């Protein structure tokens, strides 16, 4: 038996090669691996003794040779294959242990150049791994040092490796090389910001197993990008509490996305991925109090995201109710002490919580496909806001309308948000028609609607929303506009003394 060993990550390779050697396996190896094995007293043949060709071009060509690939790919059950090997003086290679140039570690290094990254694209390694995995009936292929021990165990016990193991090792190789190539293409794509390619390849690494998915009978895992952007949820560090659940992570993403709309101290409370209360204030405690007041019922068991460090006073308030998660850029020591007394609360710290993540792609799975789009990075262009009514909104109304629009952008469509004095006072998410969203936002409010403002994620198809809003006490409305019946809504607003602003930007969210 012959084994070809060529590894960048040399963890465990000496013991593995030693054990193979003791089992009578002849070992072939490339430059650095050969050196390491020989230095450890293992008898090892250099790859050039097999290829009769020097390793060259700074290691770009070492194993790319018929003597290597023929020895791996020949089908042992085909006499003509074996005859061709014999005629060409090629010997079979039965075990292939390879791990690839550290492309991931290279691109994660701060300040890495494109040239350095490209030099770390492995060519010969994936070629051998794929040859061996294709011919796994005859070849044992190992791409992960974690598998050395079990392979040696099987060889010792059964004098060979079972078909089941060989198949699983081959599958692991194709998953590994596919992820490796996807990582390279993703890195190169990011260099030039190439959007929506003909073939979309992405690779994600398992971050953690989850106890279950959206429901207990669904299996689930949390995967993360190779290079999660600074300020992304995947970078959050859990400081306290039980393991995050699938729904926790999804809801935390909703809270974080909404929070990133705000620069002033803000708190967003989320339930089932919809904001249920958003408050802004001169400090984080006043922002939290406003977010809480918006809907003291729904915030219970919800997720709260804050864009300032949580201090003791805020922690004390927060600890009065049951919250699943608090996500913040940090916690003072005293705040941590207070919150850690609650064993069920999860505390997440994300340093760069306000950092905007623009220019990303948003992906939704449909059966048999994926829907991919740019992320909704725009709120509206301030200079393009158009007052369409006789009455012009006051500064206070404008401020509240900006807040309401930031929130309505992140609730499920059809969505309506009512706001007053720096906080939401009514949220109507996910309705199948717009008037129900208006009615929900009004009827579920804990506040007087008098002198509040209303934001709508899309245009009003009829003037009924204006009528309902005015009847409840709304004085100003912000909406995209663009309906064929805009004039009806404008006329109604004028009749009822309401100020209305068109943004020109729709924010559907499904
Ligand atoms: N070009 C080749 O023929 C080639 N053959 C094997 N490698 C890689 O060389 C590395 C091992 O190199 P060394 O044994 O010299 O430390 C492995 O990661 C292996 O995947 C190659 N390098 C990259 O393409």
Point out poorly predicted stretches: none
Beta-strand percentage range: 15-25%
Q: Say how many strands there are.
A: 21
Shape designation: elongated
Number of helices: 18
Mean pLDDT: 96
* Subunit arrangement of the protein: single chain
CATH architecture of the largest domain: 3-Layer(aba) Sandwich
Secondary structure class reads alpha/beta
Bound molecules: ligand FAI
Q: How far is it from the N-terminal to the C-terminal residue, by CA?
A: 58 Å
Q: CATH superfamily name of the largest domain?
A: Methylglyoxal synthase-like domain
The proportion of residues forming helix, as a percent range, comes to 25-40%
Overall CATH class of the largest domain:
Alpha Beta
How many domains? The number is 3
* Biggest beta sheet attributes: 6 strands, mixed
> The CATH topology of the largest domain is what?
Rossmann fold
Strand order of the largest sheet: 8-13-12-11-9-10
Domain MGS-like: 1-143
InterPro entries: AICAR_Tfase_dup_dom_sf, Cytidine_deaminase-like, MGS-like_dom, MGS-like_dom_sf, PurH-like
Protein name: Bifunctional purine biosynthesis protein PurH
GO molecular function: IMP cyclohydrolase activity; phosphoribosylaminoimidazolecarboxamide formyltransferase activity
